[in-house]
Amino acid sequence: MSGEARPDPRVERFADSDAVAEEVARRLLDVLSVFQANGHDPHIGLTGGTIADVLHRRLAELSPDSNVDWSRVHVWWGDERFVAADSDDRNALQARRALLDHVDVDPALVHEMPSTDDARDAEAGAAAYSATVRASGDGELDVLMLGIGPDGHCASLFPHHPALHVEDQVATYVLDSPKPPPERITLTFEALNRSKAVWFLATGERKADAVAAALSPGEVRDTPARGVRGSAETIFFVDEAAAARL
Ligand SMILES: O=C(O)[C@H](O)[C@@H](O)[C@H](O)[C@H](O)COP(=O)(O)O
């Protein structure tokens, strides 16, 4: 992470995963509408995984009653599984089915990471996504949402993997992810840390150790979620089960 001081992470606790998704969905819609009311077209970072899917569905349900103009929201991903575009494993396809197909996004502002249909390998896909991010500006995300794995990974930055040490790229690749599927593209720490607000979502007892580790001092290589902090805020939205070791 860059040297400047960043606010300490805060923890917000909720009863269960539905309550976490409800709060994060409402908070995101509020934040997006304030940005837009102030003339700023916001950039958000989506992630994959179970709680992200619950969140995306709730966002789709709540959006019609919000002031958010989705056609002015830039959509990015923190990581992606390097599989075919129509694979059920794709984070982007999951997000399309749950959210993006149900709101009025501008396709030109939805920046999927490359699939195996678009790039010859994950390394080439990561290079292409780096170029896409660079071409769009400074790569700063207004709100980045991240899941966290039981091993403390976030995006596709897994403990002790070489991808943790890539510093001169926006995006990099993973060929042997411990969480299937094995091939992935992920933003690097440097890119993730350009975010203003970082919102971790963690639910269930399987995440309790990882959440406690992510909020404790220690090596980033042991618990990669320690290494992502927003310049304005970092919030861990957790349910009681995931907060059990705090
Ligand atoms: O593509 C992925 O697999 C993710 O981006 C990954 O970082 C995920 O967010 C966490 O593993 C949490 O996933 P769960 O909510 O399913 O545990």
TrEMBL record:
The keyword Lipid biosynthesis does not apply. The keyword Hydrolase applies. CDD domains: 6PGL. Keywords: Hydrolase. InterPro entries: 6-phosphogluconolactonase_DevB (IPR005900), 6PGL (IPR039104), Glc/Gal-6P_isomerase (IPR006148), NagB/RpiA_transferase-like (IPR037171). Pfam families: Glucosamine_iso. It catalyses: 6-phospho-D-glucono-1,5-lactone + H2O = 6-phospho-D-gluconate + H(+). Its EC number is 3.1.1.31. Pathway: Carbohydrate degradation; pentose phosphate pathway; D-ribulose 5-phosphate from D-glucose 6-phosphate (oxidative stage): step 2/3. Residues 16-234 form the Glucosamine/galactosamine-6-phosphate isomerase domain. Transmembrane segments: none annotated. It is an enzyme of class 3 (hydrolase). PANTHER family: 6-PHOSPHOGLUCONOLACTONASE. NCBIfam families: pgl (TIGR01198). Hydrolysis of 6-phosphogluconolactone to 6-phosphogluconate. Belongs to the glucosamine/galactosamine-6-phosphate isomerase family. 6-phosphogluconolactonase subfamily. This is 6-phosphogluconolactonase. It comes from Nocardioides bigeumensis. The gene is pgl.
